[in-house]
Specification:
Blueprint lengths: L1 E9 L3 H9 L10 E8 L2 E6 L4 E10 L3 E7 L3 E12 L2 E12 L8 H20 L2
């Protein structure tokens, strides 16, 4: 299992960061997604621009503090957790992602994949929050 943990600071209130990250009806800011399909209160599916679907199940939702879920698709399974904290001048967000590849040949590529995905997500989030 590969794990990637990143902490970033955003110069805006925790309420704004929380709302942007957890609002599954407004995801146009995500450059990698075509759409998000909300199945019910605790489950959703992200569809990439290339048409690949990943299923998510929310495992924790503590407003303004923690949002976590499991995720699975044909290539991997894992979890993601976002920890939100008010910090001087804004918000500190710590993202922890853990992924296991479902195909042995993919194992060496997972750490780099995680880093790239987290960087893209956080770059997109920063652009959205600084509008």
């Amino acid at each position: 299992m590969a794990v990637s943990k990143v902490t970033v600071h955003f110069p805006c209130p925790v309420e704004r960061v929380w709302h942007t990250v957890t609002d599954l009806t407004h995801t146009a800011w995500r450059s990698d997604l075509a759409r998000v399909e909300v199945l019910d209160e605790g489950r959703f599916v992200e569809h990439t621009k290339s048409g690949y679907a990943t299923n998510f199940t929310v495992t924790a939702c503590e407003p303004l503090r923690q949002w976590a879920f499991t995720m699975e698709n044909g290539n991997m399974s894992g979890s993601w957790e976002g920890a939100f904290e008010s910090a001087e001048g804004g918000t500190r967000l710590t993202c922890t992602e853990a992924v296991t590849a479902k195909h042995g040949w993919m194992f060496p590529f997972i750490p780099g994949y995680l880093k790239r995905q987290q960087k893209l997500y956080l770059d997109d989030l920063r652009k959205e929050l600084l509008k």
